[in-house]
Inverse folding.
């Protein structure tokens, strides 16, 4: 009887082992670099460019589905470190301490830089002065009152724009008075459009590619040209000034993949960094890492297409 029990137990074990292997195989087959589904957590200040990339990617590869989850920069990084998110898009690279944390977990993040973005400073259309010195903004962040600024408006206390400006001003915390925060870049733009003297701090992509509901609101604000700390000239957050490294509030965009296998995260990162993805970046008003090439056709005579 004992002999039969052992045989039966062995058969059950082999069956379960085979089923588990089959299940793992089936799950791995569900996702490749060009098919399957994945959620990516995105810094909300650059969501418009990511939405464009996802729309074209899914339109090109019908078996791929990507869900975009916008969050503040602090939440994006925390989700990545806590392995709640496997693929994220941020406005900064990982720090040495963060990389060491991944090394302890035997995870090697794949980091791909794909664009240069800009933080834009905006004011109400009633403000005739469309120039601002970066030092003026930094002084305000350091708690020094300035009659030219009634207040600074950010999208979120934990956003990448707040972190960026705090690092520039070399302050640990923002001033308790004169600094306002909302939840989204659209809310910042709307508030500035309705309040004179306020300076909004937003990702430039929200201005170059506004949603249909924000098109009229955008007309009520000015995008300010900024003078750097060691410069005498004012520059705008345009592709040209970004390309010439003249605009003082530029930052790079990264896609960080911690999947650990050849999945959809790798395929999407390759797409963004490739020819089509870089053309999407160029069209969005941001600066691509690699300028897409153009093919010129030289003709010896003009052909009339109407004939």
């Amino acid at each position: 009887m004992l002999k039969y029990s052992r045989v039966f137990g062995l058969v059950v074990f082999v069956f379960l082992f085979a089923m588990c292997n089959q299940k793992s195989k089936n799950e791995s087959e569900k996702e490749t670099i060009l098919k399957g589904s994945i959620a990516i957590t995105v810094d909300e200040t650059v969501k418009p460019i990511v939405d464009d990339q996802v729309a074209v990617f899914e339109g090109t590869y019908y078996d791929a589905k990507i869900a975009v989850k916008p969050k503040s920069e602090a939440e994006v990084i925390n989700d990545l470190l806590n392995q709640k998110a496997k693929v994220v898009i941020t406005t900064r690279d990982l720090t040495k301490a963060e990389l060491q944390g991944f090394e302890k977990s035997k995870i090697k993040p794949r980091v791909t830089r794909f664009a240069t973005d800009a933080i834009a400073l905006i004011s109400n259309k009633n403000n005739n002065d469309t120039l601002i010195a970066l030092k003026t903004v930094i002084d305000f962040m350091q708690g020094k009152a300035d009659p030219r600024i009634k207040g600074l408006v950010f999208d979120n206390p934990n956003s990448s724009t707040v972190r960026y400006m705090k690092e520039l001003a070399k302050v640990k915390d923002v001033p308790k008075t004169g600094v306002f925060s909302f939840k989204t870049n659209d809310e910042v733009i709307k508030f500035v459009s309705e309040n004179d003297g306020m300076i909004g701090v937003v990702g430039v992509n929200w201005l170059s590619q506004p949603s249909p509901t924000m098109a009229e609101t955008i007309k009520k604000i000015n995008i300010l040209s900024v003078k750097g700390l060691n410069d005498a000239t004012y520059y705008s957050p345009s592709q040209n000034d970004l390309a010439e490294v003249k605009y003082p509030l530029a930052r790079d965009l990264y896609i960080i993949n911690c999947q650990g296998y050849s999945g959809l995260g790798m395929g999407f990162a390759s797409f963004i960094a490739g020819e089509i993805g870089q053309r999407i970046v160029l069209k969005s008003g941001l600066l691509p890492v690699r300028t897409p090439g153009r093919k010129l056709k030289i003709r010896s005579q003009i052909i009339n297409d109407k004939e």
About this structure: The chain has two domains: 31-116+252-288, 118-250. The domain at 118-250 is CATH 3.40.190.10 (D-Maltodextrin-Binding Protein; domain 2). The chain is about 40% helix and 20% strand.
